[in-house]
């Protein structure tokens, strides 16, 4: 059975963009701006200062933000990995 991807670190690069490292050594950049631009659930992290408050879940399963009401917004390791790889491929295609 293939081990599930786990994140080991996350840091904001610019507003809406995160650099993430996984437990297998892969590092990628994920642009969340198209996702967080829509819907009231992401209103809290559309604020630049709040976006910077991203945290890594203890076991690396997800990243999250907690708003001032105590509600959590999160993204899972597997979907972020998929997005990081897809976005990297797109950048390669655009550069060639």
Average residue pLDDT:
93
Q: How large is the radius of gyration?
A: 14 Å
Low-confidence segments, ≥5 residues, pLDDT <50?
none
C-alpha geometry: globular
Protein architecture, described:
The protein is α+β, with helices and mostly antiparallel strands and 96 residues long. It has a single domain (7-95), classed as NE0471 N-terminal domain-like (2-Layer Sandwich). It has helices at 33-36, 48-51, 77-95; strands at residues 7-14, 17-22, 27-31, 55-56, 62-66, 72-76. The longest helix is centred in the last third of the chain and has 19 residues, at 77-95. It starts with 6 loop residues before the first strand and ends with a helix. The mean pLDDT is 93.
At a glance:
This protein is an alpha+beta fold. 28% of the residues lie in helices and 32% in strands.
Provide the fold topology.
Blueprint: E1 7-14, E2 17-22, E3 27-31, H1 33-36, H2 48-51, E4 55-56, E5 62-66, E6 72-76, H3 77-95
Antiparallel strand pairs: 1-2, 2-3, 4-5, 5-6
């Amino acid at each position: 059975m293939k081990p599930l991807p786990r994140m080991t670190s996350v840091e904001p690069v610019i507003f809406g963009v995160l650099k993430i490292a996984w437990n297998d050594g892969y590092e990628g950049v994920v642009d969340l701006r198209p996702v967080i631009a829509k819907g009231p659930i992401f209103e809290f992290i559309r604020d630049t200062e709040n976006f910077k408050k991203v945290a890594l879940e203890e076991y690396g399963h997800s990243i999250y933000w907690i708003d001032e009401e105590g509600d959590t917004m999160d993204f899972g390791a597997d979907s972020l990995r998929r997005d990081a790889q897809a976005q990297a491929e797109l950048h390669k295609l655009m550069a060639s």
